[in-house]
Amino acid sequence: MHLTGWLPRGMDDRIASERAASVGIRTSPLSAFRRQTSGRGALLLGYAGVPERDISEGVRRLAQALR
């Protein structure tokens, strides 16, 4: 299962994905799945394999990485 995490306008989702990876969170930039070269950035976030107790910590680390 996945969800789309929309980023603030102007934030590059490929850079955001790299920042997430730097804190151990694997994401995919939504721009990798579209043909257009422009549009609002987003991260594709998978959560099916993540224990519920770990999700809050992951969200905290992701937010810190994207600041």
| Overall number of domains | 1
The description of the largest β-sheet is: 3 strands, antiparallel
Low-confidence stretches: none
Distance between the termini: 26 Å
Number of strands: 3
Protein name: Transcriptional regulator, GntR family domain protein
InterPro entries: PyrdxlP-dep_Trfase (IPR015424), PyrdxlP-dep_Trfase_small (IPR015422)
Q: Can you describe what's shown?
A:
- The structure is a single chain.
- It is built from two helices and three strands; from the N terminus they run βαββα.
- With 67 residues, it is of the alpha+beta class.
- The protein has one domain (2-66).
- Strands 1-3-2 form a three-stranded antiparallel β-sheet, with helices on one face.
- Helix 1 crosses helix 2 (52-66).
- It is globular, with a radius of gyration of 12 Å.
- The protein starts with a strand and ends with a helix.
- 16% of the residues are buried.
- The mean pLDDT is 92.
Please provide a brief summary of the model.
A three-stranded antiparallel β-sheet has the order 1-3-2, covered by helices on one side.
List descriptors.
single chain; 67 residues; alpha+beta; 3 strands; globular; PyrdxlP-dep_Trfase; Transcriptional regulator, GntR family domain protein; PyrdxlP-dep_Trfase_small
Secondary structure topology:
Blueprint: E1 2-6, H1 13-22, E2 28-29, E3 42-46, H2 52-66
Antiparallel strand pairs: 1-3, 2-3
Organism: Cystobacter fuscus (strain ATCC 25194 / DSM 2262 / NBRC 100088 / M29)
Protein name: Transcriptional regulator, GntR family domain protein
